[in-house]
Amino acid sequence: MAHILAVDDDAELRRLLVTALTREGHQVAALDRGDAVTEAHCQWAHCILLDVMMPGEDGFATCRRIRALADCPILFLTAKTGEADVIRGLGLGGDDYLVKPFRLGELRARVAAHLRRQERTPQRRLCRGGLEFDLREKALYREGQPVALTRGEYAICEHLALHAGQTFSKEQIYETVFGFDAPGDQSAVTEHVKNIRAKLRVWGQNPIETVWGVGYRWKRNES
Fold first, then answer.
1. For residue 10, which phi and psi values (nearest 5 degrees)?
2. Peptide bond into 122 cis (omega under 30)
3. pTM for the full model?
């Protein structure tokens, strides 16, 4: 289930969007104007459907305002079909462009495709259990508070968390995190994991498990 924000001044279309996407198992919130979209909406949403031609702040202006706040796909819904409009919308940070009238089946399929892509390649935030990774800042947070990790410790956590449930050998982790030509050897991974566990235990977290004779993995139930 994903959180989807639908923004359109057409009440009937909003009703159709809510009905169609709720049937897909999503939680849908609807707004009737662009300037009603807040930072809280942006943090909540996994996907935003944004009409272009709305009174007051149009969809392009809304996209420009919220793009830095919304770490999720933005799909424009509009009757404007000109190439210049498409280029402008995508240039402002939109991820897709559906021309009205569109078929609800196509909308559902496109939303699903963007959500799958977002899940595969998170751009900014990655949540694993009670831990949140800021992938741009390269920092780990627990309930909004930073977890004090070294650069190497964070890199190991991020790599394992991005591939939750997958087991990596110490050699694979070392080469991925530190590079083939880095000084030291894979035994350093053992010490890093020991330190990571100690630091996360303070926060009530123990997401890294040892696969004896193989290596380490991020617990799938912590994903």
1. -90, 110
2. no
3. 0.56
Each residue's pLDDT tens digit, 170-221: 989 988 887 755 555 678 899 999 999 999 999 999 999 999 989 999 998 6
Please check whether residue 6 is in contact with residue 29, taking contact to mean a CB–CB distance below 8 angstroms.
yes
Three-state secondary structure string covering the chain: CCEEEEECCCHHHHHHHHHHHHHCCCEEEEECCHHHCCHHHHHHCCEEEEECCCCCCCHHHHHHHHCCCCCCCEEEEECCCCHHHHHHHHHCCCCEEEECCCCHHHHHHHHHHHHHHHHHCCCCEEEECCEEEECCCCEEEECCEECCCCHHHHHHHHHHHHCCCCCEEHHHHHHHHHCCCCCCCCHHHHHHHHHHHHHHHCCCCCCEEEECCCEEEECHHHC
Each residue of 78-118: pLDDT tens digit?
887 777 878 888 888 888 888 888 888 888 998 988 888 76
Q: Please give the torsion angle defined by the CA atoms of residues 18, 92, 70 and 155, in that order, rounded to the nearest 10 degrees.
A: 130
Tell me: the pLDDT tens digits for 10-50?
A: 999 999 999 999 999 999 999 999 999 998 999 889 899 99
- 181, two tokens: 């030509």
Backbone torsions φ then ψ of 32, nearest 5 degrees: -105, 5
